[in-house]
Amino acid sequence: MSSVHSTHPETRSHILLVEDDPEISSMLEDVLSESGFVASSVGSATEMDGVLKRGGIDLVLLDIMLPGEDGLSICRRLRAGSQIPIIMVTARSEDIDRIVGLEIGADDYVSKPFNSRELVARIRALLRRAQGGHEGASAGVHPLAFAGWRIDPVSRQLRSPEDVQVALTSAEFDLLLAFCRTPGQVLSRERLLELTHGGAAGPIERSIDVHVSRIRQKIEPNPHDPIFIKTVRLGGYIFTPAVKEV
């Protein structure tokens, strides 16, 4: 049973809950509404597709365990054609299940049972990052170039040396931008989380490895032998190209 709001003020972010448990959906809608969001809920992938087709959704809160098409499949499908922010919700405790969600393009995740304040903090942090408003954005608004690539913090676009736009999730974009703003520096996973999340609630450090892997797949000539983002044993990562403002 879906509960979809037809109108909402433009200044309020619209969160779509994809959750088949009516009690959890109702609770989450109340929490999000009290926190200043517009909240809608659907119970299946089919219902979700109809809502997203109408537009106006700013973030998807996606449960993994759903009837029919599950959350991981939905996330993979959404990422194939959209960069809408996605937070996965899982009742599974194993890190591997969470990592799989990140590997297929989720921006963040929360585990059931979760603290409602933490969930709201994660949503707000992700929306800020998706809109270019996280704290790291104050470091500069000029486009940056490296090895023929161009990354623009204002339009939040990455363009290849062939001037083709390359799709990145919000988390991937923020991580690559952090690297571009700190070239030649060894950055620990903890430091990268600080740079990309501005001190707000964020995922485990292991998620940095997942996002780095996804970025390498998109920018490295050979992702298996990276030359741009190098791993520093026991240290983290270092971005090797020269970077300049353009």
Description:
- The strands form 3 sheets. This protein has a 5-stranded parallel sheet, with helices on both faces. Strands 9-8-7-6-13 form a 5-stranded antiparallel sheet, with helices on one face.
- It is α/β, with parallel strands linked by helices and 246 residues long.
- The protein is built from 8 helices and 13 strands.
- It is globular.
- It has 2 domains: 117 residues, 3-Layer(aba) Sandwich (Rossmann fold), CATH 3.40.50; 111 residues, Arc Repressor Mutant, subunit A.
- Helices cover 38% and strands 20% of the residues.
Quick structural summary:
This protein is of the alpha/beta class and 246 residues long.
Keywords:
246 residues, alpha/beta, Rossmann fold, 5-stranded antiparallel sheet, globular, DNA-binding, phosphoprotein, Response regulator, Sig_transdc_resp-reg_receiver
